[in-house]
Amino acid sequence: MAETAIERAPYANSRQGGAWPRAVRYWLLLGIVMLLGQVVIGGITRLTESGLSITEWEPITGAIYPSSEAEWQEEFAKYQASPQYEKIFAGMSMTDFQFIYFWEWFHRQWARIMGLVFVIGFVFFSYKGYFNRAAYRWLGTIVLLAALAASFGWIMVASGLEDRPWVDAYKLTMHLSVALTAFSALVWFSYKVWQPKLTGFPHQTLKKPTILLTIVAALQIILGGIMSGARAALTFPTWPDMGGRFIPEVLTQAEMWTVENLVEYERTAFQPALIQFCHRMTAYLLVIIGLWYFYRALKEAISPYFRRGVYLLITVLLLQVLLGILTLINSQGEVPVSLGVAHQAMAVILLTVILYLNYSIWPGASLKSVDNLVENSGN
Fold first, then answer.
1. Are 319 and 209 in contact (CB under 8 A)?
2. pLDDT for 79-123, tens place per residue?
3. What's the Cα-to-Cα distance from 286 to each of 63, 207, 348, 377, rounded to whole Å?
4. Residues 145, 138: contact at Cβ < 8 Å?
5. 366: closest CA among 12, 109, 74, 77?
6. Whose CA is closest to 226, among 260, 271, 259, 282?
7. For 256, which DSSP code?
8. In this structure, what DSSP letter does residue 336 have?
9. Phi-psi category of 131—alpha, beta or left, where left has phi over 0 and alpha has psi -120 to 50?
10. pLDDT tens across 29-85, in order?
């Protein structure tokens, strides 16, 4: 046991995050990068209308990519029986089908690879004894959220295989929200591992402003999900006005405010106009709060870590607004894939920065694992 203590002591005595072996820290970082990649791939899948190209959910056999003409013909025949093909893409060529099939397959395959990376790391680090009870609770929560996101993913796809020839915007938003909740849990746990002993906190006077910032950002992400699912940018691809008006005419008509128009949003311009208007207004509110937060934070005696987070916040926030405007005004007939995906990815980066600001205020107890092992092995 003494030899183990000597071997592991450098982790305990090293600087920020030193209670955790480097392999664990980079394993978590890899998970964050892969989850961000999944969001980007999901965005491409959505904007290229690829999400309904695979009509079955096969967790194991679905990992095998079609390799023969007969297999491609079989997959194409399944897609041809779907509402999307019949109502939108009738006459699609095999080449076009292979393009959309690839993105949906890649989206699912990336999820499988993430699961494999997690399982391998989890089993190995558990064997090495690097996790304590708190770590197991966090990792268990992340796994449950990821599984829930996958379940909502199939529910989302299934919604477009019945009557409607597209994925339901609300189910897509639920899928995205749960996935980003899993991402947030992973990011928070990673902060605890990388920097368990932050100095210069808490910043008491910034607690409530940080909560406000987080709530508004979360609301904006949800509205963005609905807007993407309903392709609301196509309805009014102009800025700063909406079809020449601040409030579009369809929103001023009392008879348009019905549950049917919210649920069956493809029949009128009401729901896309409402979601886009709310998304714009929330963006303006978020910018105002962000600028106020930036000004107020820099007047406080804040730690270097927090200061870097504040500068990152305002930089990413302004970039996100710019990407949003560019995506909107270029959505002439279709949403530009590159801009739409960049806008979605930047939203995740903004979320990561806001989580860091929260963690700088409420880091909580550090999740020590190797420290505890070192102490126990010395007894």
1. no
2. 888 777 887 778 888 999 999 899 989 988 998 999 899 999 999
3. 41, 17, 15, 50
4. no
5. 12
6. 271
7. G
8. -
9. beta
10. 999 999 999 889 988 988 888 877 887 777 776 788 988 899 899 988 888 887 778
